[in-house]
Write a structure and sequence with these properties.
- This is Peptidase S15.
- The protein has 73 residues and is largely without helices or strands.
- It has a domain at 1-40.
- Helix content is 0%, strand content 11%.
- It has strands spanning 2-3, 12-13, 25-26, 32-33.
- The strands form 2 sheets. Strands 1-2 form a two-stranded antiparallel sheet. Strands 3-4 form a two-stranded antiparallel ribbon.
- It is elongated.
């Protein structure tokens, strides 16, 4: 598995997708940790962009005069 985010500097890889039941915690030092006891004091902020990150089509697009590209992933 590999991934690339064009809005971020860097590139990441992983051997496989982590288990969906795995919990990670954002620590005050900026690290992701797997146990609450490892969380450091401090504060960090995480926010998503105000746009969908995986949306490639809209049924309303042609109705309002926008192009309607074929779905992609």
């Amino acid at each position: 598995l590999s991934y690339y985010r064009d809005w971020q500097n860097g590139y990441g890889t992983a051997a496989d997708v982590p288990a969906l039941s795995r919990s990670l915690y954002l620590s005050g030092d900026g690290k992701l940790v797997d146990n609450r006891s490892k969380v450091a004091r401090g504060s960090r902020q995480y926010t998503n962009w105000l746009v969908p990150t995986s949306h490639s089509e809209s049924s309303i697009a042609p109705l309002i005069g926008l192009p309607d590209p074929k779905p992609y992933d």
